[in-house]
Amino acid sequence: MRLGRKKMPVYRLVVTESASARNGRFIETIGTYNPIGATETVQLNSERAKYWISVGAQPTAAAAGILRRNGVEFKGHPKGEYVAADSK
């Protein structure tokens, strides 16, 4: 979910139903991502991210990259399903 102002984006990492609108209702906020500045800033609740992946949540490609860079290990299956690395 994009927040911020013109040319100064800040993103929320949220858990949402697949049928919801892109900026619509969401279940839980698991973090924020600020790509602007000398270093990108990520605040992430990794325990909640691992939980949601373990119960079947599928991150987008952009969210998966942010999660991997911040230590949330999971593996993708050929069918597109994701599993948290420590859950099995």
TrEMBL record:
* Family according to the record: Belongs to the bacterial ribosomal protein bS16 family.
User: Gene behind this chain?
Assistant: rpsP
**Under the cellular component aspect of Gene Ontology, which terms does the record hold?**
cytoplasm; small ribosomal subunit
Species this chain originates from: Candidatus Chlorohelix allophototropha
Gene Ontology MF, one: structural constituent of ribosome
Designated name of the protein: Small ribosomal subunit protein bS16
What HAMAP family does this protein's entry cite? Ribosomal_bS16
List the InterPro entries. Answer: Ribosomal_bS16, Ribosomal_bS16_dom_sf
| Database matches in Pfam families | Ribosomal_S16
Specify the domain of life of the species encoding this protein.
Bacteria
Question: What are the entry keywords?
Answer: Ribonucleoprotein, Ribosomal protein
BP-aspect Gene Ontology terms: translation
